[in-house]
Amino acid sequence: MTSATLTKKDFQSDQEVRWCPGCGDYAILAAMQKYFAEKGARPEKTVFVSGIGCSSRFPYYMNTYGFHTIHGRAPAFATGIKATNPELDVWIVTGDGDGLSIGGNHLAHILRRNVDVKILMFNNEIYGLTKGQYSPTSPIGTRKKSSPMGSVDRPFNPVAFAIGCSGTFVARTVDNDAKHMAKTFAAADAHKGTAFIEILQNCVIFNKDFYSDTVAKPVRADQTIDLVPGEKMIYGKDKDKGLRVNGWDIEPCSAEEAGTWNPSTDASAPALLVSNMDRNPGLPTPLGVLRSIDEPVYETSVLQQIDEAVAKKGEGELEDLVWSGETWKVD
Amino acid sequence: MTSATLTKKDFQSDQEVRWCPGCGDYAILAAMQKYFAEKGARPEKTVFVSGIGCSSRFPYYMNTYGFHTIHGRAPAFATGIKATNPELDVWIVTGDGDGLSIGGNHLAHILRRNVDVKILMFNNEIYGLTKGQYSPTSPIGTRKKSSPMGSVDRPFNPVAFAIGCSGTFVARTVDNDAKHMAKTFAAADAHKGTAFIEILQNCVIFNKDFYSDTVAKPVRADQTIDLVPGEKMIYGKDKDKGLRVNGWDIEPCSAEEAGTWNPSTDASAPALLVSNMDRNPGLPTPLGVLRSIDEPVYETSVLQQIDEAVAKKGEGELEDLVWSGETWKVD
Amino acid sequence: MTTTEKPGAELPLQQLDHVVIRFAGDSGDGMQITGNQFTHTSALVGNDLATLPDFPAEIRAPAGTRPGVSGFQLQFSSRDVHTPGDAPDVLVAMNPAALAVNIKDLKKGGIVVANTGNFKDSDLRKAQLEKNPLTDGSLEGFRVIEVDINSRVAEALSESPLSTKDKQRCKNFYTLGLMYWVYSRPLEPTMEWLATKFKNKPELVDANQKALQAGFNAGDIHELFQGHYEVPKATDLPTGTYRNIMGNQALAMGLVAGAKLANLQPVLGSYPITPASTILESLAAYKHYGVVTIQAEDEIAAICAAIGASYAGALGMTSTSGPGMALKGEAMGLAVSTELPLVIVDIQRAGPSTGMPTKVEQSDLLQSIFGRNGDTPMPVIAVSSPTDAFALAIEACRIAVQYMTPVILLSDNFVANGAEPWRLPSMDDLKPFPASFVSKPEGHQTYKRDARGSRPWVKPGTAGMEFRIGGLEKDTDGNISIDPDNHRSMTDQRHQKVQNVADSIPTPEVFGPQEGDLLILGWGSTGGIITQGVQTAQAQGHNVSRIHLTHVWPLPNGLDEIFGRFKAILIPEMNMGQMTRVMRSEMPHHNFISYPKVTGQPFLTTEIVDKIESLLSK
Amino acid sequence: MTTTEKPGAELPLQQLDHVVIRFAGDSGDGMQITGNQFTHTSALVGNDLATLPDFPAEIRAPAGTRPGVSGFQLQFSSRDVHTPGDAPDVLVAMNPAALAVNIKDLKKGGIVVANTGNFKDSDLRKAQLEKNPLTDGSLEGFRVIEVDINSRVAEALSESPLSTKDKQRCKNFYTLGLMYWVYSRPLEPTMEWLATKFKNKPELVDANQKALQAGFNAGDIHELFQGHYEVPKATDLPTGTYRNIMGNQALAMGLVAGAKLANLQPVLGSYPITPASTILESLAAYKHYGVVTIQAEDEIAAICAAIGASYAGALGMTSTSGPGMALKGEAMGLAVSTELPLVIVDIQRAGPSTGMPTKVEQSDLLQSIFGRNGDTPMPVIAVSSPTDAFALAIEACRIAVQYMTPVILLSDNFVANGAEPWRLPSMDDLKPFPASFVSKPEGHQTYKRDARGSRPWVKPGTAGMEFRIGGLEKDTDGNISIDPDNHRSMTDQRHQKVQNVADSIPTPEVFGPQEGDLLILGWGSTGGIITQGVQTAQAQGHNVSRIHLTHVWPLPNGLDEIFGRFKAILIPEMNMGQMTRVMRSEMPHHNFISYPKVTGQPFLTTEIVDKIESLLSK
Ligand SMILES: Cc1ncc(C[n+]2csc(CCOP(=O)(O)OP(=O)(O)O)c2C)c(N)n1
Ligand SMILES: Cc1ncc(C[n+]2csc(CCOP(=O)(O)OP(=O)(O)O)c2C)c(N)n1
Ligand code: SF4
Ligand code: SF4
Ligand SMILES: [Mg+2]
Ligand SMILES: [Mg+2]
User: Fold this and answer.
1) Is residue C287 lining ligand 3, measured as CB closer than 6 Å?
2) Which residue has the higher pLDDT, B130 or C63?
3) How many distinct structural domains can be found in chain D?
4) Chain D: residue whose CA lies nearest to C56
């Protein structure tokens, strides 16, 4: 294979895309295909792994290798794939149900193990594929088919969850901002280890515009902040609002007084602090890179031990395997 | 039943205790039985629920109701029990394997739902019952039966995990300090909602004295800090060391300069900050109450909706159930 | 307002015994509403009927495409009806995609009603059709009625203040009106339904009613049809009050009723999955009946929460489909070992793995009976029709409570989404089976058995009865035991208890000759089709009988004797022969013939009839 | 140093054909080491043998208690041996608890060697004994040899620098020496083993060797025994090089060998569980063979990681026991649907639920064959003995790779922890079955089948072959399909592929008369006992034959014809009759008799013999 430059189109598979018209998934798919063309990815080196859900249909539409597995378990499959062939560029696509409901544990464990995969969680705060039950990210009081009087379960905050699992890279973006998605994909891609990206995604059928108060285009500039490592924490249409730390807390301030964002501190507390800003009326919803640290990568260590063992004991041969232990002869 | 005062002995079941001689579990059991007597608990109102593991044998030894279920699922059983009868005082006993390996997701979900149960996780950083494989809390490099060249999986920090799951009460104590255990049990008990307590526990057979550098008696005073809500963050044999916040960080200081501990701030970041202190050489291992906030309790809301529905529609009768919808007659 | 008095008096009126009609259109075309209205009206005029919606697999496929087609089939009849019918007599196709997807099922010589307004080139392209099927001769052999419904609706609503788009949304009522004319149905029920449905939007009431009436009038005026039909009211229906009900709806109501009859609170732990989610959703709306629904994080948590509920003294329940069942095996074992009541509902769909979630299969039978580690017996019962689901949900509760055991209640996609008229039971038909809790320590042992082999139930909270249970083997006192004889004895006792359930159920009836060459054995949702098929074959003079199994594990008593009276027993089932395997292993000395169908679609009556003919002619 | 030249020359020396000996003591008494040394030495003198350790269920129960008793049984023989023996001829009891727990198994007239040093009142209390069994007459009918091993060891080591406590830890070698004398074994192998084992602690080497020698000498000097015995070397053993091996160890080696023979990297995903954990542990030590072990967060993640590995081009494997198997069902379905190779190892233990984790049962058979949603066929093979585990692990890999299918490899507690001498295969015995990967797009289809019915395997990373797979039904190209005919066809193809495996395996041999009244059918670990039982019954003149099934699904070809030659087929199995059920459902016309045993313990040879006698005398 020559490494001829591929275009966005080269990453489109021959499968008809079957999401609902208007679904946010289309924008994410387009952004991803574009990003893959731009980064000069090789389709044959790439594997998209997913669970079950509308979001998890994603791999069918990428002209790369793809594995549409079972509900919630994509991280486990991906771990097996990476431990077998670390050369593969593995991307997991999951939903708030797939990844945080049935699959929460596998997500937690891949995050702590720091397997070198990129995880995209499409968070639409709903179970789309099963036609609209509330999900573990739906706010309390969500009235849907299975919660006619409103849901009573406190939701997870996906990024806070990932931070609690000692995730090494945690970010958030939104389906209506192609540029921000591209930038976030690139940052995740550059990270060596598990990169977790929450993508706020509009399910036009069952949870239309759930994000209208925060990341919807008309309000986005004033209601969110894009956290960029090493840059000042400034936001607002006119870039006139700032954030700074005060003791245990984060607080609004003027743009001039704004602190500098560092997602790579020793402790993960700052990441959690900003990730929980949504809960707080006066503060913006955080987008961008919330956490980014370097830690040993799981499959690298796995293979290193094999190399070490081979170096020490020699490559094991079938004959040595059988002819081991204390033996005796019968003649 | 009269509410005659019961003694510690009244909480001892007739079952022979079968942990290894010297196991830390004995001390926890004794502390619990003592605490139950002191708090004036009623055995018939109490249910101990557990999964599988050495730790999970606990319910057999308490003269209360007990359910030794299957591996990792105790929180799910407990949720069913509380949703049925919120009057029962439900305690979950789990291990680092039961609760964070196979059972991580159920633990995460009970924490976010805030079911009113008390969870004791005996963390011995090992799978005891299956004879000594490394666990999800074992540090990288742990050499055990299934990791002859050292484990390569980054561990979870149980309290950080609980905080990331937006747990409403998170604490830590240790099996070798009966007083501290009693105090921590009482604080958890007073909390309305899910209370998670990590108990560092010595597995004398497979992971003897893994905590010798931190919470072992000889070093405990200098290597740990007992975080008490509203009190100064002071520690050391001579109470001469302090901690205080500085920007995104926590740092050592003199006792005089020490800050005041507040586990009930709006954001959970301070809890995470202190929970990650172990990673940091100059800082003590945190014990005590790391997080404590008031949030709606799951089963309370569940039952409230039932009450509301009954108030609005009247108590559903079998007859109404069947004779509903659009009907017609055939004569 | 109404002109339904003498519908189409000028055109010939023909009497029919039964009709199968299928409405098909785009997901957005409102075909489910159309079908339901036709059903409702037909029920009111006294027909017996059965319905089956056919949803697209996608949530909303692009408009006009084949995957976006939504269908609704119903059979209405002047006699007792057991299935939504094999091949439709009439296909209403709102666009080319709907026509393309459904035409292969239409009866030879059947009627196609096509909305030509949607057969433009762009529509054909969306449906991936190169030629127009209305003109390319491919519909030869059918009677094609072309109506430009789009234009007709626009005309009819020219005075309406609605936007053009909103006017077009009344198309389905125009179509319904047209079909009402063809089958001589009254308009009133739908007129009333519209009035209530849109009571706050009078312009919508008006427009839709106008469209309905216009469609009805069109039959007459435009002489689209050479004649029209009447399906007289069924006279063999038992008297009583009826309502129309879908399978999962009936099943959910049955669970609430079952718990009531057991005098227990129903607590459902469930995780959404097609086609079981509607059980969770239905039960969530029954809060005023004291129903607790826990939407759990996965299927394992769901069943564990349900077991926890039963442990605490409620009636625990869980509902799922095949992949979810596969996850619950370990926890089912705990329920068997601890002997707690539990109802496990499995709405089967086509496998293996994710398979075809919206298609039907009965392939979880062996998983239900055997899919657990250890010797772990559990009763299994299977629903045959939407209304049967109510009765069997109660039966599952009865067995669970009386025998202190988990029970599996099998249903499937076909029953779950199908509907039929339900003759409402009177309160006297519903026999209570109240649970009893032990509160006296004297003579109590955790696993002491009663005459049924069932153990006593103690509710935590009861003073003096504190006990510990779990999944380790235990002795009669409930203490952990690894004694070899104890394990043998407990294994036997668990086995025997489940076998004892057979003593509480009737031997199933043989319909038709009581002995002979051929007996057709049905279980689950093949029941209705087998009934229809055997009745047809009998009418054609074939000597054939049928029997239906409600309890598939343990098998009812008396089967051996019954089977002995027949030379062969044919078992049609929507899997590779799972029930046949069970029967052979239980009663190897009988001649069971397997008749598998694994297309994701129910049997057709003709397939049963043909099979009978071929077997009897051998 | 050695005095083994003329062991106990003064006392009568009697020849025996075989001996069963059981060492029993406290967990801390070193009984496993004692047993292993006896085994090793016996193997070196040329006996055939089989062993079975019996670990306590608790990690460390309090010293001296019954739950704390640890045992090790071995049978050594001058002939081919198939089991560790029924009832021991000799019981070595290091304390009262060990005596109390084990005495019921001892052969009538058997020898008890009791360490009186541990029969103090406090010891009796710990063992919950009210009277001293050595004096209360309860041992009547046995030959009791009392030795105060504690004192004798103290005497023998009076000069040693070790602490009193450490000296007492040499008791097991004193005991071993004593038994070496009784059965005329050489001391050298153990002497050497001690020298290597403690090479950095010469004082331990010295003390243990002294204790061993003292025990040996005691036999003679103290005239404890009326005589001693010799079990001549087995002459019917095939020549070759041997080693002693445990079941799980052999199984792990077989998995590595199987992957090598397939030219694939072995990747194990596993979660610890008794009695399967030692497979994970063994494989973790084979890193220099390229083995990757992933200790997953649970059994589901374990199998999913293994499937992921196979997807990426390795040979995925997973190992567990019953409760873990119950959790893997859904993922197995995905492996069936995507048709990827996978080896699933189930070391069975007694169920249901957590059951009795340290006890044996074969009760996961039906779960293995049927425990998944949908029609989801999968080959199942079962290990009969520790050495068989090596061969069958390779066979599982072969089937998985050649048929692109998950394969279940069943073993159990009895095989897993048992040991026997293994005649090491030569490299020529191990036939390679290299996997091939497709890398050319021409003519390639994802589910195009070869003569075996197997599909091509593409390794991600291969340019131009990018494809998507998943658990939804698909067509031959791998595209999602809900077409009815396609589903029928794919279901048939999956079924047929698994059936095809039968063509690659030999028809099992019938041992004994080739026709007759009774055939005993064994599968899994009942194999050895059935062999021994049938040989015994044959020697007693009974006309009985036996057959052993290695492949339990699909069944090998030719069985029907074989069964037709026998009036009855008896199936002894450690469950409630699961294989009998399978056989009846497959071949209902034969006369299968179920012989279940569900005590958590293996069959005894006598139970087989008695059953044969009772059936043949009918
Ligand atoms: C074992 C199992 N349980 C349940 C389901 C049903 N199911 C499919 S997708 C889904 C939830 C999807 O939600 P999410 O991950 O948020 O995806 P979305 O459709 O919203 O993109 C569920 C419950 C399943 N396929 N398998
Ligand atoms: C489904 C299932 N998988 C695996 C096991 C085996 N198992 C029992 S306990 C355990 C781990 C226990 O570790 P932990 O929870 O830390 O308890 P500890 O023994 O250390 O107190 C495992 C893997 C099981 N019983 N069930
Ligand atoms: S249901 Fe929602 S998430 Fe799913 S495809 Fe439709 S719009 Fe998108
Ligand atoms: S193995 Fe460890 S945790 Fe288990 S009982 Fe023994 S000392 Fe305690
Ligand atoms: Mg979602
Ligand atoms: Mg542990």
Assistant:
1) no
2) B130
3) 3
4) D482
